[in-house]
Amino acid sequence: MTDEMFIGDHVLLNVGFVAARTRLGNLAGGGLLLAGVRPGDITETPGRAQLPVHWEVTARGGALFPVLDADLTLTLAGEASTVLALSGVFRPPPGLADAGLDREIVSWFAAAAVRVFLARLASALVHPAGATPRSPAQHSWPTWDSWP
After folding, report:
1. Dist. CA 105–CA 60, nearest whole Å
2. CA atoms of 70 and 89, how far apart (whole Å)
3. How far is 54 from 33, CA to CA, in rounded Å?
4. Mind listing the pLDDT tens digit for each residue in 118-144?
5. What is the rounded (10 degree) CA torsion for 13, 144, 33, 128?
6. Pure H helices in 30-102
7. Is 4 helix (H, G, I), strand (E, B) or coil?
8. What is d(CA 103, CA 53) in angstroms, rounded to the nearest whole number?
9. How far does CA 26 lie from the centroid of its chain?
């Protein structure tokens, strides 16, 4: 099982677009999105902001393995609401192929990882303290092995 798969999900945030965009910028600029996530530059059009992200994990032997290349998108959904969406390509980490897992199980694993990532990001965007620039040492991020 080494095939790439398209993945996506979205969540409605109870926060205005401008606040969500500002907080996403703080998280991306402060390196606080999640361990192993490298953000690109945010691009904007009226009512929409898009942030490309590249997520890597450490594989066996200490090598970095690209797991996800995706776009995070904020879209205006009302005066006090914004849609946060993720769409991209997921690559199963090394070891899953060796475990003999079929595509359906790996697809479930990828969807669960994206849901957890979006839930944590949504929480930080909705709650101002979660997007305040801080030292990465002040955060306790999960390891890849602790995700569903």
Report:
1. 21
2. 6
3. 11
4. 998 999 999 877 555 555 444 444 444
5. 50
6. none
7. coil
8. 24
9. 15
